[in-house]
Amino acid sequence: MRILITGTSRGIGLACARKYLAAGHEVTGLDLEESAIRDCPSYTHIIADITGDLPEIPGEIHVLVNNAGVQEGGREIEVNLAGTIAVTEKYGIRPSIRSILFMASSSASNGAEFPRYAASKGGIVAYMKNVALRVSPFGATSNSISAGGVYTPLNRHIIDNPVLMDQCLDETLLHRWAAPEEIADWCYFMTNINRSMTGQDILIDNGEQLKSNFIW
Description:
Elements: E1 2-6, H1 11-22, E2 26-31, E3 43-47, E4 63-66, H2 76-92, E5 99-103, H3 107-110, H4 115-135, E6 141-147, H5 156-159, H6 162-170, H7 180-193, E7 201-204
Parallel strand pairs: 1-2, 1-4, 2-3, 4-5, 5-6, 6-7
């Protein structure tokens, strides 16, 4: 199948690209930066801004993974929400599509982190459900992943600080964060194995939102 993934230069997007390639699929990556994937005939890398003029991609697209995004800086709504909508409307809403996946965030449901970031991710979950309604005539699914802490370059300032890292791990039930490859496994399952779940947001946060201290 033909897979289109945004934000493939690093982190979760790069792990997803490698996962789908290892499974024998053809992957096209869309990113502002160059790719770390070299000399792979099944991989095509396109440098593009999802908030700008999107390139024409010939051929059918069967799976769309909306991963590109920013955490802060003032462009969260523009990039995370408006950019994701633009990509989905251009490449995803078509008869050839089999599955669309959105990378939301645990902050979409608990409101934590930066205000614009939380709002943008909450918007993604709502938009994902709208897409599920519109791609159902094609027999396609639309879902999202809301990850908690993940070991990605965007979180390097925490990962490299033992005190901050330990504080973050203490906020989870399992005292761990997810690896990008673990999220990529979930992405693959939800797009290429799952056929019956659609319109759902999956929380993968190692029990962070569930953690509580019961006092009697």
